Amino acid sequence: SLGILGSIPAALLIVSLFGLLLYLLTRCCDRKPRPAHSITSLKVTLSIVTVLCCAAIGLGLYGNDDLHNGLLEVLQAGRKVDGVVSSVRNQTFILENTLTMKIQQQLTELEDIFDQKTNNQTALAQLQQALLTAKGNITIAKNAANDIRRPLVGLTITDFLTKGDQWELIRWPGTVAILALLLVLCAVLLVGVARHSRCALILFSVCGLLAVTGSWLMSGLYLSTSVAVGDLCNDPADFLVHQAPHELPADILLYYTQCDISRSNPFTQRLRESQNAINNARNAMSVVSKISPVLFKNAGLAPKLGSVNADIKLCERLLTGLTALVDCRAVHYSYLVATRGLCECGLLGLVLMLIASFMAAILLTIMVWVDSHTWIYIRKRNDYAQVEEQSYVSHQLHPQSHQNMNTRTLPHHPKGPPVISGSHTIAHPGRNAKHDMSQVQQAQQQMHHQQAHAQAQQAQAQAQAHMMHHHQAMMRAGGTHTLGRLPSHSSPTHLHGPNNGKYATLSKHCKTLDANDFY
């Protein structure tokens, strides 16, 4: 079931990538004219969605910090419980070792000494009976200590805690690094939109696909983990019972996880048996210590008896410490801290990271779609190259250049904004700025040369007209007739060039574009 839940974001990833593929395929055949102001709306949309994506990533960072703190509480509580279990296991081992290797061995040596013949048989029989009583109680105490230690032998969580520390040491900074990388990617997109950088937008289009894939996969992982942790937090005690080793009885786990007063401590009975046996052994050894020096004066029993009594006192101290260790309050408090850290702080962090990754995946998908639609239009600024008006005289002097200029002009529609067809945009001078500037300077120099030439022709035409007018006046005044051919009085005087020498201008509805301005 967790695998099925985790596959839901993977299916959404496939759908989103398929939708992006269809969109890119439709863009290949799109030639619909689009107004220029649509680029601005795309930039605003990209900026808003990018800011929302940054907010979602920030939510993920907050959730990651909560999850980290919750896991640290779980690991610290686990170390405390492991310390208690290790202390109980070690003290019972020391107790058992002391009773077996020291006290019993010394009692056996005393028994060999007490087998010797003596005059007071009644006292000897009483001494041997006390020694047998001490040996029997020592055996009982040893068995009780073994019963306490046996369920705890297979209970070790040190390896689990070590792996948890290593995993969290990698997970927390790794998640921070991934989310920080997504923030950097969003910053690159914002800079690309602000600076009109086509390279930055294309870079985001490529890296954004990887970010979308990673976000959807993280959503699937967080979804499965959140559901699993939620099920665990519904009944943590039952989970521990199922995960515990077979040597550990379920009543022991339920006692420490619930710490109910109505439940009896499963170790209390064995501890009481061991304590009673140690007390009986101590009383029996006090009898032995009184009788044996009288019956066996030259046997050197004082060191042996003192060693046995010292070991019995050590066992009493160990049992007192075990009584405090097996109390449920310390372990139950650590259990509550662990469950609170995992089920409150940790689960909240997981849910926040799930929401953040899901939102980031959706927003990144939208950002990749809009960015793939935008970078085709945003190449450079949409500036028109304005050209000064030229004299119509240049058309007569240089018709070829005027014809080339006409082929580079586009009509300007005064009733509406300029229309851009398909993916073709008008770019501002960028990489070829110097080349374009030199062309403009050459065109201006040529224009000034043409204007000077036209003015010279106009002055020459005016001088010829003035000479003709002066010649006619002299003919009327002197009545003489020259041999030259006079012009007809019926035809008006025309200046050289069209429009009677007046300057002609291009239409104000035309704007001149460079050939390299087309995308």
Automatic annotation (TrEMBL):
Composition-biased stretches (Low complexity): 441-466
Lineage: Eukaryota, Metazoa, Ecdysozoa, Arthropoda, Hexapoda
A Pfam family this chain is assigned to: Tweety
Compartments (UniProt record): Cell membrane
Span list, region Disordered: 402-505
Protein name: Protein tweety homolog
InterPro entries: Tweety (IPR006990)
TM annotation in the entry: 6-24, 44-63, 170-193, 200-223, 347-370
Membrane topology: Multi-pass membrane protein
Job of this protein: Probable chloride channel.
Taxonomic superkingdom: Eukaryota
GO annotations of cellular component type: chloride channel complex; plasma membrane
